[in-house]
Write a structure and sequence with these properties.
Blueprint (H helix, E strand, L loop, with lengths): L8 E5 L4 H12 L3 E6 L4 H9 L3 E6 L5 H15 L4 E4 L14 H29 L2 E6 L12 H21 L4 E8 L5 H4 L10 H11 L12 H7 L11 E4 L8
Parallel strand pairs: 1-2, 1-4, 2-3, 4-5, 5-6, 6-7
Amino acid sequence: MTPRHQGKVAVITGAASGIGRAFAARLASEGAHVVVADRANADETLAEIQSFDGKVSSIACDISLERDVEQLGHHVEAEVGGCDILVNNAGLIPSCQLEELTFAEWRRIMATNLDAMFLTCKRFVPRMRAKRWGRIINMTSNTYGQVTKGLTHYIASKAGVIGFTRALASEVGVDGITVNAIGPGFTRTPGTLALGSGYRGMSSEELFDVLAQRQAIPRSPTTADLVGTLSFLASDDAAFITAQTIYVDGGLVRGG
């Protein structure tokens, strides 16, 4: 059987660690050539994929900067011919009450969580249109469907991702391109475990426990719970699914 993503090039932002790293490993294991785009060191992601002889390359870039995204585009075209699957995964999730939130911090979150998706899509969509095939998967958050304090900037950016996803899907569907979003819950990764007591004075483990008890499936999500949805949306099996947001959070957000 031919691997699900054989012959495809997948560009994944924020893939040096956490959810992005798991996404990169899954698509590479299914035949895609993965390009890791991250401002952090991606050696661990590359080593994991190379360990099973997967196809992978990386470029250090800040995808909130237009010039870096342009360099990313040139790199992808020169090295592997272009992008077929774009996974907009990079994001920031700081906690801050509105009264302490500066405009500079607001703009920093918007630049990484939302503006960057505009920049990457604008850069890679033209080639997808020319090939009449493309998959764009944007990472949002289930916090949009909850009442969560201290995250006004973050939730606003992730709500924007959902709106952007729906609008872009309407523009590019005629060209064989689908655009969908995944809304994970508070997923167990090295990054979330390192947050400490930044949210309501709770440790990460305490927050995992509180959220798990509110879910239909009462356990903490891991990256393994997300990769199947990503792989499906990136495949031909999802060719008639677009403009959708799929919450992968054990049923914490129900409906809406």
